[in-house]
């Protein structure tokens, strides 16, 4: 295996509505921010891969339109996944493993304010039996939280504690959308949206984009030499998917996360920090258990997806958030998790280390 | 069971309402064209003028900011005679769809060429916009009904035109 490291990460501010800005303008901000950190020009990037969802903006081939942000003259080697950009990172990592490329730019973007976000997500469900009923993503997550409570794995107080911690941590994150000091009692006094979920248990609707650059050890060491930053090595990465049919899954646990975590080698060392792509508060508790993390690991120091959720990039943002802390020396080893699909259907786990 | 007909159709209607954001540059272009003006943007890196603008110079992937008002005269760079009708359009085939470059700009766009004999249109033909009645103007490139060849102007050599433009944009290149 070739050693691959994250050398740059940039995220736009996460906002409820980016106004007149379009996808291209958001992506330019993210991509130029990441390239500027390492002084990269297009000629320094061997491969580009992105993650986004055309249904989000309601424009066919929006992901191709986003190429206007890259400067694809002369033509570049590029690919796209209709998945969270964490999977674009996986594809780019594989490309580097083939030996054909040494560097890659990964970006993800989502302008969720364009359309009916929760209904858009119903379209990813089975088209014969489930989608015609239009179960929105909050109701689906509500089913999962209810199942966990029924199994004795979750209380409403625990869910509120996750939110209190998220918004407190987000106070130190200048890009965060939701932050502040709250109490469990305050949150539990709020009405439910889809019981047992309250509004604060759900991810905010966010506009934004982010970009990340990875490189082989040789390139990474050269580029970061003398900057005070260290390369953040991807020492393990794996992803697993479960059935499309909710009825065939045990929603109270995440077998796909557990296997991906084992394959990525989460338990091979101490985990200082973990960024978990848990769009709903109860999912953080579920994922923590699936990855075998205990209280010695700081979970979602950035505030996590409850503090800002760039749909299609929130998974990549978990990787970026862990990488930034390791790069700056605030942590040595961390775990980043990304998810896709209803109720944590598909999960990716990456182990990141500073050496 | 095998003689049963397969189920070939189910009804599962999908409606989605979106509010679209054209972007900063495209919004400016649409606001201007509603007033009968064509406004492009100049890339500070290459010096080239892009119209209609998209907010970025796709060649370099950098934001563009400088607005440049352009004339409504252009040159035919490529064209095709179309024999297939446009759905719900008054334009009758055969009609000409052309790739045009506005004077003082550097990126082509597609529009109709009409008001002439189709056989008279050549690569290099000089054309001018025929605007719809002002009462019909909206936020649309369709405010121009079509481009019409300019009487008395000879076709230009498009390679020479390109070379001339490239020399002109040098002055605007980012230092």
Distance between the termini of chain B: 77 Å
Oligomer: heterodimer
Which structural class should the secondary elements of chain A be placed in? alpha/beta
Main sheet of chain B? 5 strands, antiparallel
Strand content of chain A: 15-25%
Q: Taking all residues together, what is the mean pLDDT of chain A?
A: 96
Number of strands of chain B: 10
The stretches of 5 or more residues of chain B where confidence is low (pLDDT under 50) are none
Distance between the termini of chain A: 17 Å
Rg from Cα of chain B: 21 Å
Count of helical regions of chain A: 12
Strand element count of chain A? 12
Order of strands in the sheet with most strands of chain B: 8-7-6-9-10
Task: Give a quick precis of the structure.
Chain A has helices at residues 23-38, 54-57, 62-65, 85-97, 117-120, 137-150, 156-170, 184-188, 217-224, 255-264, 281-290, 314-327; strands at 4-11, 47-51, 78-81, 103-111, 192-194, 197-198, 207-216, 232-241, 273-275, 298-299, 333-340, 346-354. By secondary structure, chain A is an alpha/beta fold.
Task: Give an account of the 3D structure.
- The complex is a heterodimer of chains A (355) and B (175).
- With 355 residues, chain A is an alpha/beta fold.
- Chain A contains twelve helices and twelve strands.
- In chain A, the strands form two sheets. Chain A has a ten-stranded mixed sheet, sandwiched between helices. A two-stranded antiparallel ribbon of chain A has the order 5-6.
- The longest helix of chain A is centred in the N-terminal third of the chain and has 16 residues, at 23-38.
- The radius of gyration of chain A is 19 Å and the shape is globular.
- The relative contact order of chain A is 0.19.
- The model of chain A has no long low-confidence stretch (mean pLDDT 96).
- In chain B, the strands form three sheets. Chain B has a five-stranded antiparallel sheet, with no helix packed on it. A three-stranded antiparallel sheet of chain B has the order 2-1-5, covered by helices on one side.
- Chain B starts with 23 loop residues before the first helix and ends in a 5-residue tail after the last helix.
- The model of chain B has no long low-confidence stretch (mean pLDDT 93).
